[in-house]
Design goal:
This protein has about 550 residues and is an alpha/beta fold. The protein has 3 domains: about 160 residues, Thiamin diphosphate (ThDP)-binding fold, Pyr/PP domains (Rossmann fold); about 160 residues, Rossmann fold (3-Layer(aba) Sandwich), CATH 3.40.50.1220; about 170 residues, Rossmann fold. Helices cover about 35% and strands about 15% of the residues. α7 links the parallel β5 and β6. The longest helix has 15 residues. This is Acetolactate synthase large subunit. InterPro entries: DHS-like_NAD/FAD-binding_dom (IPR029035), THDP-binding (IPR029061), Thiamin_PyroP_enz_cen_dom (IPR012000), Thiamin_PyroP_enz_TPP-bd_dom (IPR012001), TPP-bd_CS (IPR000399), TPP_enz (IPR045229), TPP_enzyme_TPP-bd (IPR011766).
Amino acid sequence: MRAGEAIADAIVAHGVDTIFGLLGDANMFLVADLVQRHGVRFVAARNENAAVMMADGWARATGRCGVVTVTQGPGLAVAGAALTIARQAGTPLVLIAGDTPPGDPLHVQSFPQQPFALATAGAFVPVVAPATAARDVGLAFRAAAERPGPVVLDVPIDLQDEPVPAGAVPAPAVVAYRPASPAPTDAAVAELVGLLAAARRPVLLAGRGAEAAADDVRRLADWCGAVLATTVLAAGLFAGHPYHLGVAGGLARPLTRRVLAEADLVVTLGAGLNRWTADHGALFPGARVVAVDVDARALGARWPVDLGIVGDAAVTARAVTARLEPRERPEWRSAALAAQIAEADPFDGIAFVEGSAGIDPRAFMRICARRLPARRTTVVGVGQFGGWPNLLLDSSAVDRAFIAPWEFGSIGVGLPYAVGAGVGRPDRPVVAFEGDGSLLTGLGELDTLARVGAPVLLVVLDDGGYGAEVRKFAPRGVDPALARFPARDLAAVARSLGVPAWTVTDEAGAEAALDAALPVTGPAVLHVRVLPEVTQERF
């Protein structure tokens, strides 16, 4: 057996049935072996950075470890931004990177892959010899699960053809590693119990890290009379609860803002508390803030807290509930507030703008709220446009149905993450929101979407430029023309690459386009020309 075959066997032994990537000299025969001998599905992207994003989207949608492969040198170098996003999100992911022969430092594609991997992915596992190939693959998958996060598995091209000697180190047992959930100290629980008992207007604010703890957090809120809210990434976690305020942060709705402004205690659980969650201090200005997180390094790292507690969200919520006296707070959890929450309409009070250049994005979102399937995976890319769907549409993070890869602030993420999510969860349609500037960084992935055939409706909100930069230039007296670009027929581009597409410029056109595109059973693009003068102040 060749070392490359041993690597393929070990990869499949870890339950891998789908792999994303691009072919090159240093990984092409490994991919061919995975496909031909093992029946693994290979999703070929057009760019290595997008390939890693697809694997990350697949992992976020499925809850499994994503796998992607790139070739040596430039293949790995191009993927740096995507690896950084996955690292900051803590996505379990193994990137199998070919490498140049160690004995050929003058190879044209040679570059220091280990320090690059450590600076981006944060973890590097080399296949050191044919005899250890299976073991090294196992170490990479174990590291991806334990961190969790991306790991670069480095495979020199010449090693792959070497024979595996007798007595090779066997692959480690395939186990589902689950780290123990950290419990808070008794002193921390006692201090939080005291704060909740003394508070008059407490709020429990849950993030993506509390998804598995939703029932425990809800029970604690009912026990202590707190209202509930979530970060954007945990949207919909408490949907249906009469005192669920929805998303807190820069994209909070008016009622949520009004209520949170009165809070005197905010307890975050599994939430990445930062300037956006607190809306730069404007959201709950009079509240003491307690943060509960499994990672001690995250406590107060991006926003000051009055008390930081190291602990799992579910374990902490149960411990506090067990020691806290139940308390009703009718002045906080009032029937009037429950009625306001139930009746709230995100489109109330909006003065819609009409213009010949396109549709008011808020008017388009109102149509989307009525027409899009409730059961969907929602993907929102990075940019000013992302504020509209997150502020005005109800999306749900339950069952991994909401993906917003905002961790690194990189544009160009919407389409590749949507492809990965669509491949991973073909049982429900994907609706992805992307900007024109973002899409133009990776148009080639429209071809990937067409070839894959995943049920993805890509909504391109086109304001003719980089909207965030345009909005920031004007107050400083800088000509926003620097961030504006000529109008392009993105629907025609999509159709030329094999994806059905429609252009939307008004409400009637939006209705007609959705008539044609729904239900989402395969790839489709809506190119929506939105009025550039309607800007999103918070995103």
